[in-house]
């Protein structure tokens, strides 16, 4: 993986903020990327999951029934709540267009993480969840 691509990922992908290029390369070397076609379901609400996803390209819809409650685009992560709290998925994820994703499983997450990287990634996840909660609260206020 070339250094320019890694630096773009660090800039655009919230999960990687604060990490070094070497740390991101290590994460990619142990994780998995996948392509999904428009309309493909990545997971269903209520299923148990042990991986999170990062959108490297494309669009993913987070659905509650037939209603799209969030759209994930390049740099966004989703599915992290199942990785963090080990509860069933709270929504369904469907590709709204052909997409390229990075998957990080719980076992890979635990294997990869030295203390500094683990703390940085967990703080990035908390930041992302906090922002989502603020946006949801703002919507509920209107």
Written description of the protein model:
The N and C termini lie far apart (45 Å). With 142 residues, the chain is α+β, with helices and mostly antiparallel strands. It has a single domain, classed as Sandwich (Jelly Rolls), CATH 2.60.120.10. Helices cover 42% and strands 27% of the residues. β4 (60-64) and β5 form a beta hairpin. A 4-stranded antiparallel β-sheet has the order 1-8-3-6. A 4-stranded antiparallel β-sheet has the order 2-7-4-5, with no helix packed on it. The relative contact order is 0.20.
SSE blueprint:
Layout: H1 3-12, H2 21-30, E1 32-36, E2 41-43, E3 51-57, E4 60-64, E5 67-72, E6 77-78, H3 80-85, E7 92-95, E8 99-105, H4 106-112, H5 115-141
Antiparallel strand pairs: 1-8, 2-7, 3-6, 3-8, 4-5, 4-7
Tell how many strands the DSSP assignment holds. Answer: 8
Uncertain segments? none
Q: Element order, helices and strands?
A: HHEEEEEEHEEHH
Helix content class: 40-55%
- The span between the termini is 45 Å
Class computed from helices, strands and strand pairing = alpha+beta
Strand content: 25-35%
* CATH topology call: Jelly Rolls
Q: What is the CATH-assigned architecture? A: Sandwich
Strand arrangement, largest sheet?
1-8-3-6
Mean pLDDT: 87
Broad CATH class: Mainly Beta
Number of domains: 1
Rg from alpha-carbon coordinates: 15 Å
Q: Total number of helical segments?
A: 5
Shape: globular
What is the CATH superfamily label?
Jelly Rolls
Main sheet attributes: strand count, strand direction, barrel closure: 4 strands, antiparallel
């Amino acid at each position: 993986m070339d250094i320019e691509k890694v630096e773009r990922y660090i800039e655009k992908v919230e999960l990687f903020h604060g990490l070094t290029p070497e740390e991101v390369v290590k994460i990619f070397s142990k994780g998995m990327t996948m392509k999904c076609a428009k309309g493909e379901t990545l997971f269903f609400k209520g299923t148990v999951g042990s991986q999170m996803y990062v959108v490297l390209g494309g669009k993913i819809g987070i659905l509650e029934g037939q209603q799209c409650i969030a759209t994930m685009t390049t740099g966004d992560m989703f599915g992290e709540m199942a990785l963090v709290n080990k509860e069933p998925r709270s929504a369904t994820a469907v590709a709204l267009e052909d997409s390229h994703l990075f998957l990080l499983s719980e076992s890979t997450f635990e294997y990869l993480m030295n203390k500094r990287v683990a703390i940085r990634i967990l703080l990035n996840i908390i930041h992302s969840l906090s922002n989502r909660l603020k946006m949801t609260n703002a919507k509920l206020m209107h």
